[in-house]
Amino acid sequence: MSSNVVAFAGDWHLSGNWARHRIAEVGARGVRTLFHVGDFEIRAGLPGERFRAVVDEACREHDVTIYVTPGNREDWPMILGASVDERDDFGPLAWFGDRIAVLPRGHRFTHGGRSFVSLGGAPSINFETCVRGVDWFPEEMITRDDVAAVVAGGPAEVMIAHDAPDAPWQTGQVEGICTHNPGGWSAMALAYAAIGRRRITEAFLAVAPELFVHGHYHVDDSRIVELPSGDECRMVSLDCDGTDGSLAFVDLDTLGPAAGS
Asked: For the chain, which domains are there?
């Protein structure tokens, strides 16, 4: 495998056994950098602490470091209030373990000769049935200021997010979910979710990446989408814990799937 390969993982939802399995797979392929696209579940309390301890131990064992672009199912006040530390060339990050770092919204960095931008957060479509401050945090929503900062930063080659942009810049399966509402969500829930997609879309079009990777919709899909400039972007949606489609290997030399993927 090329030495310039990284891994991307979809939603883990506090599943320690699944996380161990995927980290071992990444390490066995000689890949040292794993980008997690959200719903990792950075949580306060014992379940969150135990999960992070399991993940950190597996990362040390297999020499893997995880960089998390947070999703909606995270304790956002805990993330936003965390101190930052510049341990490596990714810049100042919030570290939740020896090998677990959270990327701030709009964070830009260079890795493997490629420019990256991370824009975490997404609306919880089930927020109406959640308890504020327990399993739903309004800080999950990407703000207008977050978007403005990403737009001002200009293009990047790779964009990592939890949510997806609007159609026509979605994979086929994500477009189907957004169009047909298979979950039967209320009009208020759909409107809330749409705000997040609109904000991601504005940032996405300004960044104009060659590769965009996200989670959130729990589907394994990819599609080449055309940007307004006429350039192309490979849109990748990752599935969640318990599925083979929740892990992807990318060769940064080509920004395509790594050999053997």
From this structure: 5-257 (3.60.21.10)
